[in-house]
Write a structure and sequence with these properties.
Two copies of one chain form a homodimer.
Chain A: H1 2-14, E1 24-35, E2 38-45, E3 55-56, E4 59-61, H2 70-82, E5 88-97, E6 106-114, E7 131-137, E8 140-141, H3 149-166, E9 178-179, H4 180-191, H5 197-207, E10 210-218, E11 225-230
Parallel strand pairs in A: 1-6
Antiparallel strand pairs in A: 1-2, 1-4, 2-3, 2-7, 5-6, 7-8, 9-11, 10-11
Chain A binds a DNA duplex (30 and 30 nucleotides) through helix 5.
DNA sequence: GCCCTTAGTATTTTACTGCAACTAACTTAG
DNA sequence: CTAAGTTAGTTGCAGTAAAATACTAAGGGC
């Protein structure tokens, strides 16, 4: 046993990653928010080769000296671009093949973040490396994207729609305080269809993932609405979609 | 534009990954089957450092010269260990941090495979690198595992149970021909509870992911059962669990 | 003070699950 | 040859939950 341990120390002292042909490994982010009543995604204009000057998902290489783990890399990139430090963040999926990056065999861990639209300070970066919100149209975005980022985005949109349908996750797209109608609106914007009010409110009551803010109301030119905030709960999963119809054009 | 392209060529001709500190990147596999009426997972005994002689998930480094993409790496490893060439295979999740591998910052793409238990030729490899099936007990397996493989396995088991509950995926754990009772048995073994027969058969009918084999029956000492095979359909998702009770001990 | 609008609740109607009983088709024992 | 035992597969019913819709509540504007 002790021999094995000594063997291992011996082995490690001679190990050098630069002796091997390894792939590039990066982390990319799909950052969603709802602005102007519409789902939007954050893109950055690339300041360097390859794909210089094309729009792409924010991301970059793992800094093996500064980053403890993959999530730390993702959070660092998110913070650099948006200033947001406590987003909803989950891993989307890995992508890796010979051809996605002209520099060589490349793999990436794609992450998926939700942030409220308010108080976001986008990174400018002198002309290049600028960040900007783009509207999500159906399954994609208007500009052509670098690498295989269009594919990653499409998968992220699917995943988002699915999670909005089946989990309590949409609360992360709203600011601190919100009304139930606003939360329902988020559902409708992301899913692209109306949602039944009583089914929606029943889910809210049963899920316990939001709580009333005592004595807080949003006033308008009609009956005031109760204000809610996120409860300190992990994501809740529901096993059914909610009722609703696809909106008809009129 | 042409200038940008020339710039990019210039840039690429000088790019050398060995100039950078990069993480290790590997692919690991969680291979499930149902044998002896019980869920089992394939492990290999490590023949080399680090963690020499410990049990671990099968896997290894991406061979950037032979592997087209991540899935190709996963399929190659699966084939080397089991001989199986057409498994059900999906990506589980990525794992990566500073500490999981003593050789340095390491990331892995974990895959999740289902294979039928029949006709599997396990790799022997002279004493070391031997592959063996282990019973899944609750959320883990009896031997201690190398790296963070116990964590990866636990997540894979959760994912499997969830998918068995909500998708048509269990068909991939059975051989070419099977009866509906056998398929129901797979559900019960993986989920650890009984499943209602009529709810189960209703799901089968609606899902269209299996088809009757004409004139084929399994005979026993009682009424013969119709034989079925997988239909050529992608995985079907259901939005409800099926009825059933947790088995009571007697 | 009435109307309009949005918030929020109650009721009815409809569909489907969960459960259990039932029939079907074979083998084996006597 | 028949009865018993076992597993395959279907049917029917009752309780429950979801979808649809009608309703009440509470403000502001005029």
């Amino acid at each position: 046993m002790s021999t094995t341990h000594q063997d291992e120390r011996e082995f490690l002292s001679h190990y050098n990653i630069h002796d091997y042909d390894v792939p590039l490994t990066s982390v990319d982010l799909v950052i969603f928010t709802v602005r102007e009543e519409v789902l939007q995604v954050l893109l950055v204009r690339r300041g360097e080769h390859p794909f210089k000057e094309m729009w792409s998902l924010p991301g970059g290489f793992i800094d093996i000296h500064r980053d403890q783990d993959l999530e730390a890399t993702a959070l660092r990139k998110l913070r650099e671009k948006t200033g947001v430090v406590t987003p909803y963040l989950e891993q989307l999926q890995g992508f890796g093949n010979k051809t996605r990056d002209p520099r060589g065999w490349s793999s990436t861990f794609a992450y998926f973040a939700l942030i409220p639209s308010e108080h976001i300070e986008l990174a400018h970066g002198a002309n290049t490396e600028a960040a900007q919100w783009f509207r999500v149209e159906e399954n994609s975005v208007q500009p052509e994207l670098a690498f295989d980022h269009a594919q990653i985005l499409a998968i992220a949109i699917l995943r988002l729609r699915n999670k909005v349908e089946y989990t309590s996750l949409p609360v992360h797209l709203l600011p601190e305080q919100f009304t139930l109608s606003e939360l329902q609106g988020i559902h409708e914007v992301v899913l692209g269809r109306t949602v039944d009010k009583s089914a929606f409110r029943k889910r809210i009551k049963e899920g316990n993932f939001v709580e009333e803010i005592p004595d807080a109301w949003r006033y308008g030119s009609n009956r005031p609405a109760k204000l809610y905030r996120r409860a300190n709960q992990p994501t809740v999963y529901f096993n059914r979609a909610m009722g609703g119809r696809v909106e008809e054009k009129d």
